[in-house]
Amino acid sequence: MTDTYAPPPADADAQAAAAQPAIRILAQYVRDLSFENPRAPESLRGGANSPQIDLAVELNASGREGGVFEVELKLTAAARRDGEAVFQLELVYAGLFQIVGVDPEDLEQVLMIECPRYLFPFARRLIADLSAEGGFPPLMLEPMDFAAIYLARKAQAEAAQAGNA
């Protein structure tokens, strides 16, 4: 005796796939990139103190036609030594995402947490390469907790609203 398998109807597959949340990356790109090395070549001499590096992160998302969203990850790194600028780096790395099967109340979290997680490794590599090409050791950013960043920014916004009320 042989067992036979009959696949479910094609429309059942389509319904099951539509119910599953999915993120599809349509494109990734550099929107803006800037590297300034104002004190070169003096800033490149060895033996100097290590610079203090301040890092800032911004996240933005906007809807496009056809259920597509653009998410921007803006990373700014400013290196200073003895109160003087060593280098300034700014990168806006963006992606176009198609998001399906996500409840509208969960969409903001997907855009501000999950999408930046996809973008970050590529932005990190660009920053490391750019700082190295500027004559400095590669600036290797630590992995970021985008959920914590999202929750902190949301708490700030709610506190500001409460303060204005």
Can you count the beta strands? 4
Physical arrangement of strands within the biggest beta sheet: 1-4-3-2
Write the CATH architecture name.
Roll
Structural class: alpha+beta
Stretches where pLDDT falls below 50 for ≥5 residues?
A: none
Average predicted local confidence, pLDDT: 87
SSE string, helices as H and strands as E: HEEEEHH
CATH structural fold name = Bacterial Protein-export protein SecB
Domain unit count? 1
Q: What is the CATH superfamily classification?
A: SecB-like
Instruction: Report the sheet with the most strands, covering strand number, pairing sense and barrel closure.
Output: 4 strands, antiparallel
Alpha plus pi helix count:
3
Percentage of β-strand residues: 35-45%
Report the span from N to C terminus.
75 Å
Q: CATH first level: which class?
A: Alpha Beta
Rg (CA only): 22 Å
Helix residue percentage? 25-40%
**Envelope shape:** globular
Description:
This protein has 165 residues and is an alpha+beta fold. It has one domain: SecB-like (Bacterial Protein-export protein SecB), CATH 3.10.420. The chain is built from three helices and four strands, in the order H-E-E-E-E-H-H. The protein has helices spanning 10-19, 104-133, 146-164, and strands at residues 22-36, 52-63, 68-81, 84-100. The chain has a four-stranded antiparallel sheet. Helix 2 (104-133) packs across helix 3. It is globular and about 65 Å long. The protein starts with 9 loop residues before the first helix and ends with a helix.
